[in-house]
């Protein structure tokens, strides 16, 4: 099915050319970070050894003193929410005392200032703080910054942050800048950026710039960004370019080093204050040369600092003495004070207005577009390994995200539905009591999003603690889903919940999820569609009896297929079978099916072809028929595609589109990277953070691996046993968009010692050659970014973090898109290639503070969809910095991968007097536009009468994202509406009394709008507060 992108009366244009009309970058990509790379000097001093091995590469050889330099010293303490200690241990050991010390010391010293970033710890501290501590915090209203966890303040402070402090994430995405701006934050500070980019920008005083989105034609999402110039945010890298000088001002440490020379840090006295003051003055002046203003930001802190009273006194007491001396010395002509990030930006704005002809001084900054990945702090040691470290927990977090979204949306709509009905107070109050469960699950998800959680860069015991936190949240959410399903089913809902079981559960935190096996007592199957569009699913479950079949409630048998269940060795399970059936699901709906045993069931059994196996995988009495084959190549197909495989290699080789009979090479290969730098004198190896391959990936010696081909009415699949991975490729036949893709599933296990210091990669080798070896990769699942091969960054520096999709396209018509269900590191190392790292097992630390390798590998599933699409507008000009946009089909399939259906089984009790009678429950009777994604519909607390406990109403936050798509690819194969506006009054049986647009954190109300005319601009996120009556 082909649809136009632009309907009559619709003034939207999703194309690249329209996105560039605002001249946000010139036609050759000026302003794009990616364009800067060829001119960036990547040189790193060789054979220069320091005690730490790290060298300060941003140097200031000479300086001209800036008169009346205004220095803002910002005390801070970075405290990881889990890293080398668990979240609980870190709070108890450091955060709790730091925050308590903060309110005490700021009460005693009114000129001292302090900033805090970790809102998770702040919330926990506040819950246990004394009334006096709470009042002190409110009174002094110290600055709370946003770091990794994008949250509204979880405590009742009258604070609306306008500045962001993000100094430890390992690279920076413009998506985060966009989210901050939408939350009312228009200024930000970042730190971990490639040393060569810092040096490059410092040379032209462009370390402060306007960060713009590539698709933003009006600059409405612009944010002022301050990039810190030196290696880290620690004291010795903060005051200026010379660490051996700056370290003397870390008064809580007694010494530091310069090579083998010991440099002592001494308290400030009358005898040394002048010497120390002039040394610090020179560092400030040197650092000021890197910026184009007379205002200087100087952080003063490090990891887990200020957790003792002694450190507060030593650090800020000594600094206060030096600052008083320098402020009084007219020869220095300098002003120094403690401040916050907001103080710095406020002072900077005053300075700009005084020294600029333009009143709109912020716009005098350089404009940059793009991301700051990959990060590198030393030579060839790129922080691209963490993109793929501990992938099971990346998948677990994505699963929780999907289930939590589904639960929140269905919870809110069920709440709204019950409010309209009479005599439902008991159910409303029951739901209201579950709101805390949603909040706790949300908190668990946010905690794991910390930059040492989702990255897989924490210690083993901390990783297990994170996994336990996620698993507990998953269990909580699924219990709530069961309750919601029970309420949705119009039959004795209180008694049904205990009989509902999810078809797939996660019983062990450190292992992948498993299917529950439905038996003859299971009478119903409930399928939930979390999408806002109609979708045809191939629903999978496991059954104990191969004669069980799916029927509609009126007795019609649906299209389905029964497959054997295989293990790693292609051994067949004797206790479980896979049942796959077609289900066309209305948007946001629950649909019920009967599960019944039949006698004549042979037509649904898959037929099997066995290759490269000497023995028969089936025993006597098996319902499946199989034949052996010795063919060198074979095909699987559906009405859209034909995929060709090699029995020698065991993998996909070509894909043909039936719509135009065009065949393209798409070969899947599995390769291994070893580890060990071959370009620098340190000879370091890969670790949790760093990817340091010992050369190109090596192909595995694979010839004629064991294979099984399954063919049936729903799907044709190829299973192959390869070293370290059970590999499955499937084509579906369910009359929907799923049929248009090649579905790949890998179950990877690198737990064996043969994988020590190895990284397993899946590579697609195609004949689709991008003109400049460009690849478009997603950023946080929100937008796509164009990246180009940079030879100077070697193999490891050309990997990118990808969460949902990437694509390459040639200069003619063809595009190859790889969609994925979890985060991976991805690269295009040669023309026509796309490769992802599936898992990595590293035996050593990589010197970034973790102190151990990554050896706790566990079996990990990962799913992909390969799309071959043809552009109707070949030859469209692209360049560095031009936006990338997915096809509408890629967007829809990506939403499906990220938000799979929930499947549950229901065992009706034997004493039940009547069978289940409902067929389906619509929560959204009409579809949303295909490009409009319902990110969430999050309920707020019920409004209850205190005396009677009767319910008066409820409210919720609706979060919408309008995806930008490429109109040149028109095949989608599903029902699709591309209208610009949506009527949210269309939610089933829900009355909306008021709707207000808010900031992204819902802390600021913007304007009231009509629920019947919600219009979200292209690419934008919008949040609305809805009142139900």
SSE topology:
Elements lengths: L15 H4 L13 H4 L32 E10 L8 H22 L6 E2 L2 H10 L2 H10 L2 E2 L18 E4 L7 H9 L4 E4 L4 H9 L4 E5 L10 E5 L15 H4 L8 E4 L2 E4 L8 H16 L6 E9 L5 H20 L5 E5 L2 H15 L10 E4 L21 H30 L4 H9 L1 H14 L11 H29 L4 H4 L3 E3 L1 E2 L8 E2 L1 E2 L5 E6 L5 E9 L4 E4 L8 E7 L5 E14 L3 E9 L9 E5 L14 E4 L3 E5 L3 E6 L5 E6 L4 E12 L24 E2 L7 E5 L3 E8 L2 E8 L9 E7 L9 E9 L7 E6 L3 E6 L10 E4 L2 E5 L4 E7 L3 E4 L5 E9 L18 E11 L17 H11 L3 E5 L13 E3 L9 E8 L3 E2 L6 E12 L18 E2 L9 E7 L6 E4 L5 E2 L5 E8 L1
Low-pLDDT parts are: 6-27, 147-151, 359-363
Calculate Rg over CA atoms. Answer: 30 Å
- The CATH homologous superfamily of the domain at 33-356 is termed Glycoside hydrolase 38, N terminal domain
The counted number of beta strands is 52
What composes the largest sheet?
11 strands, mixed
Percent of sequence in beta strands: 25-35%
Terminal residue distance: 40 Å
**CATH architecture grouping of the domain at 33-356:** Alpha-Beta Barrel
The average pLDDT score comes to 89
CATH class label of the domain at 33-356:
Alpha Beta
Give the helix level as a range of percent. 10-25%
Number of helical regions? 17
CATH topology of the domain at 33-356: 7-stranded beta/alpha barrel
Strand order of the largest sheet: 24-23-30-31-32-33-42-39-38-35-36
Described by the principal axes of the CA atoms, the overall outline is globular
Report the structural category.
alpha+beta
Family: Belongs to the glycosyl hydrolase 38 family.
Organism: Pomacea canaliculata (Golden apple snail)
Domain Glycoside hydrolase family 38 central: 381-470
Keywords: Disulfide bond, Glycosidase, Hydrolase, Metal-binding, Zinc
